[in-house]
Amino acid sequence: MALSVVDLYRDILPKTNCGECGHPTCIAFAGQVVADGLSLSECPYLSSETVERCSIELEEQYAKGKWTRRDMAEDALAWARERASSMDPATFQARLGGELVMDRDVPVFHLPYFTDTLLIRELAITTREGLALTRWEQVFILNHLAQGGTRRPTGRWKGFIELPNTTSKIKNMVDSVEEPIARAFSDNLLLLKERALDQGGTVETENAGSADIAFLFSPFPRVPVILLFWDADMEEGFEAKAKLMFDETVTDHLDIESVVFLGEELASRLVEPKPQQL
Ligand code: SF4
């Protein structure tokens, strides 16, 4: 019988997210095993019998090309739906902000998302205009619904590196979020300000520190993000630098992979906004 990412996570892995395999979560490790052929023996908590038994099944599905990387989004979406389906929609409003509205006896959750509002009806997600989201965006939103946190932001800010279990994701945050923003807006603070305001950002002065400019965004009501930006100074030999700061409660509302996705989404909206994001 083939083993999907969900099967591995649910039935085989310890689900402790200890990070000893070099992945921040067991589900991330399962994804690499299924899609990229990573050996299950990288998890030190599985018995050799379990590794051997599963490897036979995995080798068969690798040979057939089943669940290759191109199917990862679908598998992740199935997993995220399964996670989110255990959550009671009646708790969404109190936990996440937004508003739960009854529409012909069906609860529809209105969740503010950057400058838009998402409508979530029986875990189907559209924008207010009825546009569908990409599968990875849906995974991201469903993980936010499923994370289960209840705390409101405290106003105590942390860099990504200070959040728990981020070691293996720091490079992603730098390479796909902070450096693209720094490159795109080096010597162009006016354009950065224009794009940031378009995404609902406000100029942040209280927590800007030594940055030349800072913006506060609210991608979700309970998930604020600050972008700090230092412009290039050629005379001093400094290149532009960008850094995201998260409220200390962010991991109540998003798993670490979703925090990176959030950073990537913000970077993409600033650097290359799509027409509907303007
Ligand atoms: S080593 Fe990886 S797969 Fe194993 S329990 Fe820890 S995080 Fe999960």
UniProtKB/TrEMBL annotation:
Record's keyword terms, sorted: 4Fe-4S, Iron, Iron-sulfur, Metal-binding
Protein's UniProt keywords contain Ribosomal protein: no
MF terms in GO: 4 iron, 4 sulfur cluster binding; metal ion binding
Residues making up the signal peptide according to the UniProt record: none
Record's protein name: Putative Fe-S cluster
Chain coiled-coil ranges: none
Species this protein is from: Desulfoluna spongiiphila
Pfam families: DUF3786, FeS
Taxonomic lineage of the native organism: Bacteria, Pseudomonadati, Thermodesulfobacteriota, Desulfobacteria, Desulfobacterales
Residue span, 4Fe-4S domain: 1-60
